[in-house]
Amino acid sequence: MFRKKKIDKIPSIDDNAPWEQNLLKEYMFELHKEQVKDRRWRMLLKIIRSSGLFLILLIVLTTGNDGIKSAFSNDGGVEASPHIAYINIQGQIADGTPTSADSLVPALEKAFENESSKAIFLKINSPGGSPVQSGRIYEEVMYLKHKHPNKKVYAIIGDIGASGGYYIAAAADQIYADQSSLVGSIGVISSSFGFSDLMEKIGVERRTIIAGENKALLDPYTPLDDDAKQFWEGVLNSTHQQFITRVKEGRGERLSDDPQIFTGLIWNGEQALEKGLIDGLGSMNTLAREQIMLDKFVDYTPSRDFLHRLTQRAKVAASTLINGTTVSFH
Question: pTM of the predicted model, to two decimals?
Fold first, then answer.
């Protein structure tokens, strides 16, 4: 194996050589020095980047979601001093994600059962998701409120609390948002694709064998007929009515009589306040100071490692792509 010879000083100048040759030697030497410097800087930058990525991953794995104090110490002890328990509900609400019912329900139970927690904050920043997961979380909040009547639940909406995110918020005793938050979108949507015309153009034949005449309902590779569309609209309308019932149950007479509330429209915080969708404008900090009179927060959000969260999100996306049709509060 041959190694490149390290050049630390300029090659000797030959007085008998043409001046062009000596000039070329000087130029090549300077060029070599710049290349060495460039390689060293690139190597240093790679090390810095790798170290930075490792540090970020280490922080995520060891501190959890917000880096704010966890509800449980390393020895498994429960936080004993008076505090406000809060749970993050962020991103798509779906099975297998950190916002699934299986993930959030145990956290809700721990937050309510800790005698030192004086109030429960649901910190919501979600565009919605699964009707099933949203409904299960809603029901659990309502049950725990009944079981622990002395603990109030506040939903605090961040950038967005729409569809399934608002479904969950409706279970809270009071809902607050920023004046620019997006709130509402009380509706149901089913999304799919239609590839039948494309398959015909490229000469691909779809072969589907079924037992049960409607088993291939909404198959994206076959044309959508009127009967199938009418049937599926009935399913969505029924799910929509379930959503409306829960919102009315949670909000009661605070809702305005505006019929547009349940049409799937979305409003900013100021408009939502006028329609009775929220109770006021504010943040976690303002609520803590003005209503709870307590400034200590403890995070009960289930902690998931970075790799697990990434894997679960990929599974949800892949499932949606493969199955074609989804029903969601989006």
Answer: 0.68
